[in-house]
User: Which sequence fits this backbone?
């Protein structure tokens, strides 16, 4: 099901009314702007109408407004470009690490890589508000289906899909923000402020919710829709990071859910097809018998927003790079590069080392200069046959792979090497390396597991979480270019451990007396 996201009149009614009542971010004004209201009771008269409500849950990952682009964002007070879900996630999960730096002077953007943000940082607030807006619209879909009183199988599947998408956002919430405001479909809609839930309590709730939801979803869903594999991935990620979220590691359960995903029938793509996982028609590698488990739909007509792969591909192209070589119909934006520490992780012959070096220095001498630092061209808007999409413009057709089997293989490797679980993880680790064209490692160390995750999963929004889990994000044990800095002055250094988690948006804490800010902010 590829929803027509750009102009879809049916679902605009419900969320202009409903989400304003259930949003949980105080005076961030997480309220749809569209004033053309109708009531849910007048419009929710068919299965198709509920389908379009569900479409909003999916489209919320792709675009920032019912119009698609950033001209009229559905969250007031947050720029529709940098407030788009995937862009906001990329900024917090990648720009804060050794995998990416950005040269732009937009407000506090450089503070992300410098690990110097505050509780009022606009980019942190953008991600925070988008995550909880997404949770709110999923809650509303579930609530409206419950209110219908229908046991129709199709509606119940829609309900389960909304739960799965909500679970993805709660996974991001627990990982980035810890103790957060909590709402579900049973929460009052009378304007009462949400209560705060502890990280460990949210962990337990989310595990139970995803276990139940997985049983309600198909093993082989339609493209772009939630299925069992998506829920199992959320569960595997929760258990992978259980020590961070609850204080107690549980690699055994992580391995169990990884195996459940493999048993569904997902397959690792071949060496020659690896780069196609990140190209303009990568949807052909989505689903059972392929590698991508869940992805966010992108195309140059229906998802015209300045986030997602539009952001990644355009921002990675600049300097001496020819934009057409990456499938773009116009000039790139010249922003994102990688650190020399990331470059040094790759062995000779590794096909994942897709660096553009002409006219670029390996060292980041001036963080504001695009030519300072190698460009990284993992994502492209070229088709699998390396030709351009007809009518290609600055909005790519490259879907963003949220979850894929390569990550599952590396989670199993970590379960074995770090967690001591017998799960054939080292063999899976070396299957990933063999596909990349590099030699196997018979007995990989913990650090080698982490480095392989960097090479395989770069720019897929996992790096910050991985560094936190391995205890290297804020410490001086591992330094990268400009860590702890927001200028060219000084040297990389360790930072306060409070940066292992992001603050709750300060405006939300001020407006909601039930919330306590994360320690140190």
Assistant:
């Amino acid at each position: 099901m590829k929803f027509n996201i750009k102009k879809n009149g049916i679902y605009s009614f419900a969320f202009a009314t409903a989400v304003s009542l259930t949003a949980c971010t105080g005076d961030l004004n997480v309220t749809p702007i569209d004033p053309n209201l109708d009531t849910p009771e007048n419009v929710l008269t068919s299965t198709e109408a509920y389908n379009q409500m569900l479409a909003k849950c999916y489209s919320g990952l792709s675009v920032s407004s019912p119009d698609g682009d950033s001209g009229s964002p559905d969250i007031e007070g947050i720029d529709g470009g940098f407030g788009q879900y995937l862009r906001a996630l990329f900024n917090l999960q990648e720009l804060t690490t050794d995998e990416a730096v950005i040269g732009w002077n937009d407000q506090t953007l450089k503070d992300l890589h410098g690990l110097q943000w505050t509780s009022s940082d606009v980019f942190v607030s953008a991600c925070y508000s988008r995550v909880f807006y997404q949770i709110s619209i999923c809650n509303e879909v579930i609530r409206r289906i419950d209110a219908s009183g229908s046991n129709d199988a199709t509606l119940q599947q829609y309900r389960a899909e909304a739960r799965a998408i909500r679970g993805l956002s709660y996974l991001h919430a627990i990982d980035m923000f810890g103790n957060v405001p909590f709402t579900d479909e049973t929460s009052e809609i009378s304007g009462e402020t949400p209560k705060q839930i502890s990280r460990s309590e949210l962990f337990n709730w989310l595990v139970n919710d995803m276990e139940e939801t997985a049983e309600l979803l198909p093993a082989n869903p339609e493209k772009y829709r939630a299925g069992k594999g998506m829920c199992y991935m959320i569960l595997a990620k929760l258990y992978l990071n259980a020590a961070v979220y609850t204080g107690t590691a549980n690699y055994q359960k992580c391995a169990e859910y990884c195996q459940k995903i493999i048993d569904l029938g997902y397959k690792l793509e071949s060496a020659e097809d690896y780069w196609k996982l990140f190209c303009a028609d990568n949807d052909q590698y989505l689903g059972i018998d392929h590698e991508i488990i869940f992805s966010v739909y992108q195309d140059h007509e229906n998802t015209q927003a300045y986030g997602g792969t539009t952001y990644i591909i355009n921002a990675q192209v600049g300097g001496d790079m020819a934009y057409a070589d990456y499938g773009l119909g116009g000039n790139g934006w010249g922003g994102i590069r990688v650190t020399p520490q990331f470059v040094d992780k790759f062995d000779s012959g590794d096909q994942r080392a897709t660096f553009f070096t002409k006219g670029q220095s390996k060292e980041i001498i001036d963080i504001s200069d695009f030519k300072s630092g190698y460009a990284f061209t993992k994502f492209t808007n070229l088709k699998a046959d390396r030709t351009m999409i007809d009518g290609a413009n600055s909005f790519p057709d490259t879907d963003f792979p949220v979850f894929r089997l390569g990550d599952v293989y590396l989670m199993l490797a970590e379960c074995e090497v770090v967690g001591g679980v017998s799960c054939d993880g080292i063999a899976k680790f070396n299957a990933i390396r063999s596909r990349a064209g590099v030699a196997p490692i018979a007995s990989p160390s913990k650090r080698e597991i982490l480095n392989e995750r960097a090479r395989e999963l770069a720019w897929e929004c996992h790096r910050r979480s991985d560094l936190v889990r391995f205890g290297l994000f804020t410490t001086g044990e591992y330094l990268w270019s400009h860590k702890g800095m927001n200028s060219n002055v000084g040297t990389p250094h360790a930072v306060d451990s409070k940066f292992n988690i992001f603050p709750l948006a300060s405006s939300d804490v001020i407006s909601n007396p039930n919330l306590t800010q994360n320690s140190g902010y």
Observations:
- Confidence is low (pLDDT under 50) at residues 1-40.
- The CA atoms of residues 64 and 391 lie 23 Å apart.
